[in-house]
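Researcher: Please predict.
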Amino acid sequence: MNGKGLKLLTPEDANHDITVSPDGLYLSDNMSSLNQPTKLLLRDTKSGNILKTITTAETSELVAMNWKNAEEFSATGRDGKTIIYGALWKPTNFDPLKKYPVIDQSYTGPHTNMFPRNFITSLTRSNQALAELGFIVVTIDGLGSGGRSKEFHNYSYKNMGKNLTDHVLAIKELGRKYSWIDTTRVGIFGHSAGGFDAGHAVLEFPDFYKVAVASSADHDFRMEKAWWPEMYMGWPVDSTYHLTSNITMAGNLKGKLLITHGGIDENVNPSATFKLAEALVRADKEFDMLIFPSQRHGYQGKFNDYFTKKRWNYFVEHLLGIEPVWNFEMRPKTP
């Protein structure tokens, strides 16, 4: 192929997951977006014409609960010209006359991106459940995230400590645009590399991010598995590793920080969380810590429920300023 005479077979503004039939005559198109329920379509490979709608996602039970789609938004990146994208979840009882704290669900990667690529992703993030407690929840893909151009991605190289800069700018831009966004009450959470983000947020931007929950985080890239940080921070280890480390910056903490880790995490070693805790103690900073001795990198079953409840309550207490409730069921009991 020389790039000429190409035909767009899936023109709809959505994400298309395509599988071509063995004979090359047909393709299945699993089409959706963060606000378009999934449809599975059968298309002709020559024209792209839709021959049949095979299935359509059933959302009536969601609609009956007054559920609303996540909303797409855009902002201007730190370079002053690049458009970046994000998604936003509101509580179902949203009142535009109120002011809502903002919670940033972060994973700057930089090998991936957070904007929901399809309908199921917008649901499985569980951000709607958090929004129901009285928050606006956002995910943002700033400069340095994956999934776009090489130039866009290069912003992360040896500079991962600055990946949240676009998040701060985007949330401030949302605050100027919408009266119901309260940029004086901003929280953040994330897991693994997202946990690094959450910890880094209250240390790099202590006057902006007020509450953070950092789970299973690689707080210092010098203590991570070799291949991951070296891909984005380079080799040999130099001063950029030191300057990016949450442990190095522990003395900057002003807000509330909860750090958690699985005791037998073989993916991201718990030692970085322990070292951060020690650095925070040495800096005389108040913080909270929770260790699950039997858990690996991802928390399972009862332990995940416990952590989710702990994370929700941490934001309710410290960002909403309300006494949280502990004794509630995470999901309906089966009859």
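Model: The chain has two domains: 15-57, 62-320.
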